[in-house]
Amino acid sequence: MHDINFIRNNPDNFDKFLKLRFLKPHSKKILDLDKSKRVILTSSQDLRSQRKNISSQFASSQDSEKLKLQEEVHLIKEQIDSLEKKLFIIDEEIHLILSSLPNLPDPEVPVGKDEDSNKLIKTIGEIPSFDFNPLAHYDLGENLQMMDFDQAAKVSGSRFVYLKNDFARLERSIANFMLDKHTTDFGYTEVNPPNLVKDAAAFGTGQLPKFSDDLFKTNSDHWLIPTAEVPLTNLHLETITNEKKLPARYTAWTSCYRLEAGSAGRDTRGMIRQHQFSKVELVSLVKPEESNDELERMLNCATSILNDLKLSYRVMLLSSGDMGFSAKKTYDIEVWLPSESKYREISSCSNCGDFQARRMNAKYKSTDGNVYLHTLNGSGLAVGRTLIAIVENYQNKDGSITVPDVLVPYMGGKKTICLK
RNA sequence: GGAGAGAUGGCAGAGCGGUUGAACGCAUCAGUCUUGAAAACUGACAAGGGUGCAAGCCCUUCCUGGGUUCGAAUCCCAGUCUCUCCGCCA
After folding, report:
1. ipTM of this complex prediction, to 2 decimal places
2. CATH number of A4-100
3. Which residues touch strand B (CB under 7 A)?
């Protein structure tokens, strides 16, 4: 949500930022609406003031005058009603525009329409070489009889999978390893949040009103969370947080549910893109002046997982056109997948500034008043895709999978996954 | 699903048609006292918005949305959520 005061004071600047997102100027339209709103608002407030005055005289008036006062108020009320009807319509229009425009990019963000303009920040690890032809995760998984796409298709349709046996445990091990690391080493508070949320929460993080097509909706008017970012960030929905509780850092391992309506035909094979996948999410709520540093810290928390797993990856700074709706700056972490011979996204870490906090009215009490928090979120990491990366990068010629050292304790001491 | 109770400021909790934006308390902040702290005492302390150079003035908000009334935190209707008991159930 954008700050109307910022637009009033910097209309040209606002439009310039929108242009970086390849959007047309909006300030003129917004300010015209805002101006007419304020004219109407002022006169309706004057009328309300008059009405109050008359009412306060009522008790001390003669009976003969009371009738007259009643009539006066009646007339004023009609005018107020008509003005406030107009006001409501204008307000709705302003709100819809303000809540449908994406966050303004940080000055450091490279300008460009899509991922081609993303900026490489760093590359870590060697691209692994194999003395045999490495298989894709779905072939490895099916050969081991630990991934079942066919039965999942019968039961649930496309973009679902059954993980079985050691793969099911591997997924659990990965998630536990990540949670342990984030809570113990990095001070995040573990949370097991609701997986179904109401409109207000989905609006708060920016999924609504524009992106309802990406979400599953229940017949009880709940939304299935597309990421734990939604319930974690909304831990501060309509809340004034005590300064002493900042920075607030939360992590959660949840399933994520996405309709993938816009991705028909993309990544249909394997478990890269599923309607349901699990992810360990990181969310921070911090004071405004701390959010830049917090983003770097969060990125470091996420990449440390890949370092420990000894997977090769690179970090990209997303371009203005490739960033998500609520973000003002985003790093993507991409892990190397041998079967595709390329890096694929495994985490996205974003600083949203006060954009989400405005939508959910999340503030903290500072010495000079209540201030909107800054919110950040990042995958730490996508568990399904981490499993893919491990399976493909740790595969052996005989089709078995070596368990990464740090996961061996979580796998009950097992060092290799092979056909039973 | 059935019966009942409730929703008020950061928290707790009065008020149940007319200076009530809201008592008392806790928390917080500032000050006095103190070498310092504690205690005690004094004072400040809801949010959002409009208007104005400013001081200020004004409007809205006591869960949400309607309604009654000259006037609503207070009365009526609908909804949401919470709690208690019964039933069902992982």
Report:
1. 0.83
2. 1.10.287.40
3. A 4-5, 38, 41-42, 45-46, 48-49, 51-52, 54-56, 58-59, 69-70, 73-74, 77, 240, 363, 365, 367, 369-370
